[in-house]
Write a structure and sequence with these properties.
The protein is mainly α and 344 residues long. 64% of the residues lie in helices and 4% in strands. It has helices spanning 2-15, 30-34, 36-50, 54-74, 77-93, 99-120, 130-141, 167-172, 181-199, 212-219, 250-280, 287-306, 314-343; strands at residues 163-165, 230-235, 238-241. The chain crosses the membrane at residues 26-49, 56-72, 78-94, 101-120, 258-277, 289-305, 311-330.
């Protein structure tokens, strides 16, 4: 499945003249299928790190290159961040000789590297201009969500017909600080969501990540400062859509959906999977299970970074449940075989 995902993503990217955000295999949501690009990347990273045969190691390296191409073709920034986290994770979560020195060297190299990325990003398009976002995020955050439209150029573009911004934002006029529409909308929704979470931290509000956006709309009155600056917008020819259907942050979404206790339960379950995966990955008597466990641990790290900036759709949660259930079933079968061999 992961290999098909990579090939299909590259195919639709190249066949559409390198246009990003093209969804393969007729999936409606771009992240619903393409989250498994991280799964394919995890397999390739583990294969490169654990395989001793040079030819097989090169094949895994080639596969990782294809995964990177697919993620670029996908166009979602969250996957790119998850991919880099996934690449570095083995150095931090696995046991190996001279680990403390390697980690120290990576941290030492990361300082100028991060600054280089920060500087270089300022030469890129608004979507990938992370330097501009970092420079201005604190200033923008001081504004109320309903006023953040002053930083969105689309609010002052008379030629566009798909976005209507709040009068509170328009009253400020176009600010000299302009952020890309997707980024500024997310900041507004983050602040709106955080205010609700701080106000009612233990209350479960709604089930379904894709309904959180509309819930925030109904929760805050029209002139409430914590209502985001988008009055109505049109996406995919659907009228009167309030901003995004979700808030592009799985942790914040879970806190709104299930409250603090539900959030902590899900966090515990995630760390339990990581703990089991790391523990099982060092069983030298089970080579295949060890390989799968390493893949699971690396995939989880990449996924955790990616979901900070996006949410899990229901169709994805179902597949995750099946994958992790099969993984635990594999571990259980291995333990049963061990007990049988020991008692024989």
């Amino acid at each position: 499945m992961c290999a098909i995902d990579v090939i299909a993503t590259i195919y639709v990217w190249v066949s559409n003249h390198f246009q990003t955000h093209m969804t393969p295999l007729f999936f409606f949501h771009i992240i619903a299928l393409n989250v498994w690009l991280l799964g394919a990347s995890a397999i390739c990273v583990v294969g490169m790190a654990t395989t001793h045969n040079i030819k097989i190691k090169l094949l895994f390296a080639l596969g990782l290159l294809f995964c990177f191409m697919a993620i670029i073709g996908n166009g979602e920034r969250s996957f790119l961040l998850g991919f880099f986290a996934l690449l570095l994770s083995p150095f931090f979560i696995w046991h190996y000789k001279y680990k403390i020195y390697v980690v120290f060297l990576i941290l030492l190299i990361s300082i100028p590297s991060i600054y280089g990325i920060y500087t270089y990003s300022k030469t890129l398009s608004d979507r990938y201009n992370f330097g501009h976002m970092i420079d201005n995020v604190s200033t923008i955050w001081q504004s109320a969500p309903i006023e953040m439209g002053q930083y969105d150029a689309y609010c002052f573009d008379d030629t566009q017909k798909w976005l209507q911004c709040s009068s509170q934002s328009l009253a400020f006029g176009k600010n000299e600080i302009i952020l890309e529409h997707s980024a500024i909308t997310r900041l507004a929704m983050y602040k709106s969501a955080l205010h609700l979470i701080m106000k009612e931290p233990f209350k479960p509000h709604i089930a379904g990540a894709t309904s959180v956006g509309e819930y925030l709309r109904s929760y805050y009155g029209k002139d409430n400062p914590y209502r985001i600056y988008i009055d109505t917008s049109v996406y995919s020819n659907a009228e009167n859509v309030y901003g995004f259907g979700h808030i592009h942050s799985t942790p914040l979404s879970i806190l709104i959906e299930y409250g603090v206790f539900g959030f902590l339960t899900i966090v515990f379950f995630n760390f339990y999977i990581l703990y089991i995966a790391l523990k099982t990955s060092y069983k030298e008597t089970h080579t295949q299970l060890s390989f799968v466990s390493k893949c699971v641990s690396v995939f989880l790290i990449g996924l955790w970074v990616q979901v900070q900036f996006d949410v899990m759709h229901p169709v994805m949660l179902k597949s995750f449940f099946l994958v992790f259930a099969l993984y635990f079933a594999l571990i259980h079968r291995s333990m049963c075989n061990e007990d049988f061999a020991h008692n024989k």
